[in-house]
Amino acid sequence: MKLFLSFFALALCLNVQATNIDSLVQARVQQANHIQNEKGDYVKATKLLEETLTLAKEHDVSGVNFANIYHKLGVNAFYLQEYLKGIEYMSKAIDFRQKHLGKENLETINSIYVRSILFDRIGKIEQAIQDLKWIIEAIPKNQTLSIAQRDSILAIRYFALGDFYTRLKDVPNILFYSNKSENYYLKHHDSIHPSYLASIHFKGIAYELLGKYEEAAELYQNTIKGYDKIESIDIAGALHSLGLLKVKMGDYEAASSMSERALKIYRINDDRKGQAGLLSNLVEINANLKKYDKAIRVYEEGHQIANNLYQTSHHPIFGELDTNRGELELLRKQPKAALDFFQKALQAHILGFQPVSNTENPEVKQSTILSKFDLLHTFEGKGKAFLQLFQDTQEQEYLEHALATFQTLDELIVRILSDYKVEASKFELLKQTRSIYEQAIQTALLLYEQTNDKKHLTQAYQFSAKNKAIMLLESIRAQSAAQYANIPDEVLLEEKNNKKQVYQLEAKVSKLQQTPDSTLDIYKDSLFHARLAYDRLLERLEREYPDYYQLRCDFSNVLSPKIIQQQLVSDEGLIEYFVGEEQIYVFTLTPTEFDYYQIPKTAAFDTTVNRFKQAVSGFSKEQYQNRFQKDAYQLYDWLLKTPLQKLSQPAQQLTIIPDDVLTQVAFDALLTEETNAKAYLLHQHKIRYLYSSQFLLQEKSRTNEDAELLAAFGIEYDPYTLEGIDDNSNISLYDAAETVRALGKLTYSDDEAVFVANLLDGQEWLNETATKEVFLNYASKFKILHLAMHGVVDVEQPLNSSLIFTRTNDSTDFLLRAADIYNLEIPAEMVVLSACNTGTGQVQKGEGIRTLARAFQYAGAKNLVASLWNAPDQATKEIMEYFYQYLKEGQSKDEALQKAKQQYLENASPAFAQPAYWAHLVTIGDVTPIDLSSGLTIWWWVIPIILLLGVFFWWSRRF
Fold first, then answer.
1. Tens of pLDDT along 574-587?
2. Pairing of strands 802-804, 790-792
3. At what angle do helices 316-331 and 272-288 cross, to 10 degrees?
């Protein structure tokens, strides 16, 4: 608040030159200023300013003076809690000041800053953020300020942005802006400066949201120690956060102790806002301690303080209090009472919502919502209350009300996703809302079992499919959206270049953070400005091309099962998984059937999956024999046996859409017989994988019809390149055994590339010619790209996962990172990543697995052949040779890979027949046979023409 008041004071002390009427207006503004500051009478000051505004409108008053009047009216409206009116006044002040003083003028900036605070007060944090970013862009251009003044003002704005993003639960931006603020205060002050400590506090909140509770607790403790040294009241806020963290960790006694200590500090300092927020959380804490009477007293005290503090019941604190009271009633097994409080909370969060009954839900797509994330918890509680009522009564109507609530909740999640501009922020939101979708699926399936109405099974499936690979889909959807909305090519190019710059800088910063050097701060600053520019561009696209932005960012629609069934071939079965906290849901679709199956998710399931993954990717006999056979059959029994038995006719082709931990399972290595160690699923089904069922409708326009047929890259690796890997990959070298494609010599990779190129009459780049530069020049010009080389996966920083080309001039030109691939255009029919770990990486709940293969599909490739673990060099070469021979015969990609693996097993000795040597390769995406003719091959045209000319010549000779 001190920061706010200091800027108000600065904004109020204006000194302008004017005519006589201007002088009169100035005098009256100063008088109003005196009434406001000295007497605290904002009503009287506002009346005087309104009279002055009328006078100014009747005379030829300067624009600067109009701006001053509107600015002061906006400030007064803030103190009178008339926030909407304040925004209207301040917007007019900004228009006048920008026109007459310029965007970079400090007075213009002050008005924008006050408006950001007003936006915050009505819950429009996104608009507040836009205003702050406007200031951040304008301040460096102000030539009247010293560097120190600019830094100081920017630091305050970074701090405010960190605060705003904290309330939006937007983890990447919390970390980004709190780091900017932290760096400034640490540079110019000591480590106990209040704003520095607050930035550390924000960082703790980000780590808590990431689920890194121990790291978050340490940051909170450091903040508490710092505030304790300077005897700051802000220690209460840090204690409050630590108490909330203890709630998440299930330590309610510690949470109570921390919160009571914080409450005492707030009371001593008469901080009523702090008291109200803390009392809300104490409702939850005492409820979980089963101290229900105390929780109710705390709730009532919190409500009383909030009523005295705010002039309206439409405030997030009331929503928070009523939501926690509703949760209390759920713990007391009083769902009807809980519904009353959840409905009150909805009214507090959403302006204008006046329900007739507790079953009514608001329209969330366009409503003014004061706190979207708090509203998520309110809706989730309401859904739980209806489910509890169903469990108590077995009355179907309660299930219907629960489902309607979860559908509204889904609309709210879609709205928040659309508001987010940073991809990483969307990832975090999907992770945080995962449990909501699990409850929604459960509710829809309960209704299906009650009614046998397929529409409820459809709803359950659509909840399951809702948040799979949405970032990947957004990139694909953007192309068709651009055509539909007639976006100029130069605008699309600008977006592409901006996004490319952001990706590359993110990868560079994350790499340098592992081994910091003097350039880290420079790159961080460049990334900050690149993100700012990209945000501005997206805002412009949203404003100037709303149809394009809406189509591109439409997260609401998923394919219906009927449309999916129409895309399947006659002998195909699609199996899609949703791995929840308590259940695993399995949906099965064929052209004529649609069903589901569910499996309890136990600790044994996680253990079995992890043990299977370790065994199947290991090359030692001991690892293979230990538990593999039992685990491989157990997973088949859980995941596939019953769903496949439900099908009325066998599915020769399986399309698998895995989820969570299942994204790294090699399904064709599962065993279909408990006592037969060679009864692999491979022998019964050809298998392909999809990131999302939406890819069944992936557009053909992404393919370059004029492309040449094949480009093959194969690298054995010379000592100079291997030294560069050691210096730059930040990944420890494996033993350079010839049998494994670890980060050493690859004996067979160039031979593999030669074979493939010769077989299909393609082009090849081997060893010293297989450079990153060559690949970038030719990547968009071929139907098939075959890359036999090293691949390294960075699980912590997926954008740094890389393919390793031949090293040329410097130490980094040979690493093709995922960050680079995301910004390429690769409209290939197929990309074969014959390298290690190209199909594995960071498992992102909701979105799926973030891999090199995913990056290539993002860039436009219709099909990927990728590896789930370290690729055995000789075995991979043999499988690839068989694979291409079957492709040449006209087989589909999945069948070609199935037959290639089967042929490998027929010829392999027992020591090399373990799944580790063949099951790592998977095919992802479109599997239709490839037209192996080259779009640029002219002989298909020349030969017929020559024959026709010959016939014509012979015919003419006859006559």
1. 999 999 988 999 99
2. antiparallel
3. 10
